Amino acid sequence: RCYFSFMDLKLLFISANAESCGDCIQAGAKCGWCTDTDFLKQGEPTSARCDELDSLKKRGCMATKIENPRGSQRILRNKPVTNRKKGGEKLKPEDITQIQPQKLALSLRSGEAQTINLKFKRAEDYPIDLYYLMDLSYSMKDDLENVKNLGTSLMLEMSKITSDFRIGFGSFVEKTVMPYISTTPAKLLNPCTGDQNCTSPFSYKNVLKLTSNGKQFNTLVGQQQISGNLDSPEGGFDAIMQVAVCGEHIGWRNVTRLLVFSTDAGFHFAGDGKLGGIVLPNDGKCHLENNMYTMSHHYDYPSIAHLVQKLSDNNIQTIFAVTEEFQPVYKELKNLIPKSAVGTLSANSSNVINLIIDAYNSLSSEVILENSKLPEGVTIAYQSRCKNGLVSTGEDGRKCSNISIGDEVSFSINVTAQGCPKHSKSESIKIRPLGFTEEVEIRLGFICDCECQKDGIVSKDLCHYGNGTFECGACRCKKGRVGRDCECRRDEVSSEDLDRNCRKDNSTDLCSNNGECVCGKCECKKRDNPEEYYSGKYCECDNFNCDRSNNKLCGGHGRCECRVCVCDANYTGSACDCSLDTSTCLASNNQICNGRGICECGTCRCTDPKFQGPTWVVLSFGTGEKKDTCERDCNYFTLIKVKDRDKLPQPVQTFPLMHCKERDANDCWFYYTYAVNNNTEVHVVETLECPAGPDIIPIVAGVVAGIVLIGLALLLIWKLLMIIHDRREFAKFEKEKMNAKWDTGENPIYKSAVTTVVNPKYEGK
């Protein structure tokens, strides 16, 4: 009975079959369980204790007897966000807080959302780690010259943003197998042509671990040499994977992590390794030895989804610095990788510093929340409150854009559970802003049982000699036992002897066809409408099949009990539609019905035959039941005709006047007044208001037109079918004509009279 339109079928099933308080509260947030032992009526099953809170109260369950636990939340760690200015107190990265609170515990009731509020503030002077990953294939030769001085120049620019900046460098080319590179001994030593001096090809090399020494960056990068490969796409995805997962080798700290990926070519991805006979999927693990990737010949390239996962897990924001030719490709890739940016690299990488600064500002001005995998049955919804009062929901509720340093934004997060988890009653989820190492941990507890279940009683005096536990006002039966008091075994539920007790007056219907016979007792079925129910020993009663008035059950002035209306005070009748109030019968002289009748159901019934309302008024039109005896029976009043309703007299204080409107036997309305002074005067409008008859001509015309149109449509359909049939027959004829094996000049049954015999011994001599 307790269900809502937004619940799934599983919860509907639980609510309709709630045999315990725990089952009931899992059906929805508005469901409650009545623990009153005398609550159930005869024929109602135990599950009838589970209902909407308002419905339980209407059915007589006191609020103190309703079990209705609610969810709650506790904040376990609530460190304030950091308010620090550049040049102020030097803090360790782990001492800087940008999101608040950091840890919470939620107690979830099924169907009831718990709302948590998060606050995020971009800290000023936040540390940054930047790793520059460069394509060293031959086409990037002129770019390498400009990158050699990148260290000190980038250090100088980034010092305007943060006082704690570190930079690292790595390079990549391609997998060291055919057909990606030439494996001839000479080409393995120098893959370049002519007199170009190039280094041996390699997959990925970690040249410089993250450092704050810009000069060391310049020195080591200056020692690098260009290499070469055969195909145009490069093996950059292998390098990105190793940079993401080899945190100790790269030197990543728990700060803002930026990966600059610089290339002038496309990329290989999962599946391309088959060209070189490599079929094992990338395992997403670190395989660096002496700062070289050693398993490029063993594992395939990673997929885009795999890269997205690893970059997200390690809070790395990617900046793709690529030439204009490959902008469309990498912009599509950016749409698949959260917290990434694409910049246009000049032909010789001379603009790389401005590109990095612009991309960093773009990435850091947006905060996007993501959550870990949710437990089964748990949903989460976000609402953001960003700058300038902008409020967003849905997927847009996860993020805020155009955030400057020092700006504070907030998020409201609704966590809702539907039911309880199957295996564990405690779970946890984590929420964090993409690209940041900080996170919010949320511990989830689930309300799966009621408090009253802890006080369950197992006794031989209860639940049919201890065949169940008496808890929350009802018996919770042991396995294999059924019935309100667990008095019956499941295997004997439908025996003929027990079914006999469920038939009223020896009828053939079990429980009046309104319930099921369980252990010789009727348990009445439930209705879709939670306000309606069956009851009684044989489910013969209900509260919805009583007489109605004005389309309302019991006229809206009573309640239906066992198909009989029990009327409220001052109402009577089978449908409680008869009012005992006499105020509506009180005339202007304060007499009931002018002293000439009695008040029944709020309406006057005249006792004097001279006062019968409209009976004598129709005499004005020569109709009515007394038209032949009018002069004899109706001479006690004066009948005055008027032209229209405006000419009828109006009420005055000296004598009572009644305005009336009635319908005659011809369905025409007439208007009149009557007044009683020294004599009775009746004024009546001489013109009747009769309804206009139907206009026959449009009806007949419409029917004729419809018949004609249907006939034309049938003719058109017949003609279309004939055309299709003729075309098929003609096509069949043409096909048979083309398949003929003789022409028109040869008889197919003709056989020549000449027979030729060849001597097999003849040698032509």
Automatic annotation (TrEMBL):
Transmembrane annotation, as ranges: 696-718
Gene Ontology annotations of biological process type: cell adhesion mediated by integrin; cell migration; cell-cell adhesion; integrin-mediated signaling pathway; muscle organ development
Stretches assigned to the Integrin beta subunit VWA domain: 20-450
Membrane topology: Single-pass type I membrane protein
Pfam family, one: Integrin_b_cyt
Family of the protein in this entry: Belongs to the integrin beta chain family.
Protein name: Integrin beta
